[in-house]
Design a protein that fits this description.
This protein has about 190 residues and is of the alpha+beta class. It is built from 5 helices and 7 strands, in the order E-H-H-H-E-E-E-H-E-H-E-E. It has a single domain, classed as 3-Layer(aba) Sandwich (Aminopeptidase). InterPro entries: Acyl_CoA_acyltransferase (IPR016181), Bact_Acetyltransf (IPR050832), GNAT_dom (IPR000182).
Length: about 190
């Protein structure tokens, strides 16, 4: 059993978050995205973007959380980023009011593959849900690559379901299909 916890990201975490993102994408998405696109991603550029997201989020509802594995030493092993749903959460051609109010959107949820299957993704998701409920969100949405069976299975195991929306990202002239999943944030009743 892994010892781990989730905490808010700190400015000094930005570089490690970028490294985790790049390492995870290069393993998990190597068959979904063109290799040269993955090979040419700039870790320093990603780190600057994560630094901005951590230090100057667009609202109090925008958060970056990190998962930490504790052993003889502590390691950042994953992260989650989310905020109020905006135009990025919409499907192509979907009107701005389609999702309604009270919707949180996951923009990233990644655990570095070598640290997978230790509960870090579940801890990140549970911490996010707790914060979304505190913020008054009633629903959450996330886009997942259609070919990312692991993410779809993970989210599905916690009650997330496709909501019928789909889109295709144009990645260097290659269309990569995504499905939008959603989940109610109403607390479970016994």
């Amino acid at each position: 059993m892994a010892l781990g916890y989730v905490r808010p990201a700190r400015p000094e975490d930005a570089g490690e978050i970028a490294r985790i993102q790049l390492a995870t994408w290069r393993v998990a998405y190597r068959r979904m995205l063109p290799r040269h696109v993955l090979d040419n991603l700039d870790e320093a550029w990603l780190a600057r973007r994560w630094s901005a997201a951590i230090e100057a989020p667009p609202s109090a509802g925008h958060r970056v959380l990190v998962a930490v594995e504790q052993a003889e030493q502590s390691y950042l092993v994953g992260f989650a980023a989310s905020g109020p749903a905006d135009e990025e959460a919409l499907a192509p051609g979907e009107p701005a009011e389609a999702l309604g109010t009270g919707v949180a959107a996951v923009t990233d949820l990644l655990v570095e593959p070598r640290w997978g299957r230790r509960g870090h993704g579940s801890r990140l998701l549970a911490a996010s849900v707790d914060l979304w409920r505190e913020d008054g969100f009633t629903t959450a949405v996330a886009w997942a690559f259609e070919g990312d069976a692991a993410m779809r299975k993970f989210l599905g195991s916690t009650g997330w379901e496709p909501d019928g929306a789909a889109r295709a990202l144009d990645v260097d002239d290659m269309l990569v299909a995504q499905l939008r999943l959603h989940v109610s944030l109403a607390p479970a009743t016994d």
